[in-house]
Amino acid sequence: MKRSITTALLALTVGWYGCSDGAQQRAQEAPTDPAETVAQEEVHGSEVKAISLTNPLDKAMVSSGKSIYDVKCGSCHKLDETKLVGPGWKDVTKRRKPEWIMNMILNVDMMLEKDPEAQKMLEQCLVRMPNQNLSESDARAVLEFMRSNDGEK
């Protein structure tokens, strides 16, 4: 019994560390150019209200989104319905609006503060999604990859 609790705590610690966004390292590498600082604040401070989806899927965006998933998302999210640290991504674009997904990627803190569905997911997963510091275009590429993963053409 004690061993399974220790194993579970170790797994949670490793998962939490693996999904961390490296805030301490970035704090040491913070931009000194004020224009660069303002540009970063604009990306992460504003709510996404409308998204134009491509039809058919933009293959370059799908490829870029997969690369971003592999580096920043795959350690916590599976492409099927399996919950790892965070929920699985299967059919997420069928359950959620594109704007909701974009805001969850770009504005995690705002979503967890204001959105009841995001709050419910936090209660289920027990781990707060770290901010991955993606640009809006990177988040849009991840959304396009999610659409591809859900079978859209």
From TrEMBL:
Keyword Iron: yes
Residue ranges of domain Cytochrome c in the record: 60-150
Domain of life: Bacteria
Ranges annotated as spanning the membrane: none
InterPro entries: Cyt_c-like_dom, Cyt_c-like_dom_sf
A GO molecular function held by the record: metal ion binding
Entry protein name: C-type cytochrome
Keywords assigned by UniProt, alphabetized: Heme, Iron, Metal-binding
